[in-house]
Amino acid sequence: MKEVFKILISKGKGIEINTSELRQAPKETMPGIDVLKLYRELGGDVLTIGSDAHYAQDVSKGLDIAIESAKQAGFKYLTLFNNRIPEYIRIDHNNDFYYISNKKII
Predict the structure, then answer these.
(1) Is the distance from CB of 55 to CB of 44 less than 8 angstroms?
(2) Alpha-carbon distance 34 to 94, whole Å?
(3) How far apart, in Å, are the Cα atoms of 17 and each of 30, 38, 71, 95?
(4) What kind and span of H or E run contains 13?
(5) What CA–CA distance (Å, rounded) separates 91 from 76?
(6) Where exactly are the structural domains of the chain?
(7) What is the per-residue pLDDT for 17?
(8) Distance of alpha carbon 64 from alpha carbon 1, whole angstroms
(9) Mutual orientation of helices 63-72 and 33-41 as an angle, nearest 10°?
(10) Which CATH class is domain 2-104?
C-alpha cells in the first residue's frame, strides 16, 4: 500500500473517505483510520469525502464521522473539486456543526 500511495502522491492524486460502509457491515468508513494515517504520513494531502448514496435519504450520511476520521489522521484540509480544479478547504468545528469556508455542510 505504501508504494501505491507514493505513486499517487507523486502524481498529485488523492483518496476518498467513503461513508457507504457506515450504512452496512463493517460499519466503518472506507478506508479506515489506519490507512488514512499512512497516506497522511507519506505526505498525502488530497482528501475528498463521499457518501456513495443511491437513495436521497443517504446523501451526506456519515460525513461528520468522515470529517472526524480525517482530523484524527492529521488532515487540516479537505479537497473539493470544481471543474477538476482542486480547492483546499480548512476543516473547522463550530458549535457542533462542521463548517468549510463558512459553508455549513451538516
Answers:
(1) no
(2) 26
(3) 6, 13, 12, 24
(4) none
(5) 6
(6) 2-104
(7) 96
(8) 26
(9) 50
(10) alpha beta
Other beta carbons less than 10 A from residue 5's beta carbon: 19
pLDDT (0 to 100) of residue 66: 92
Q: For 41, what's the count of Cα atoms within 13 Å in the CB-facing half-sphere? A: 11
Residue in the block written with cell 455549513: 104
Counting every residue, how long is the chain? 106
Cα distance between residue 100 and residue 76, in whole Å: 11
> CA–CA distance from 72 to each of 49, 58, 67 (Å)?
15, 24, 9
CB 32 within 8 A of CB 68: no
- Report d(CA 96, CA 20) in Å as an integer: 23
Written as nine digits, the cell of 74 is 492529521
Give the pLDDT of the chain (106 residues) as one tens digit per residue. 999 999 999 999 999 999 998 988 888 999 999 999 999 999 999 999 998 888 888 888 888 899 999 999 999 999 988 888 998 988 876 534 455 555 555 5
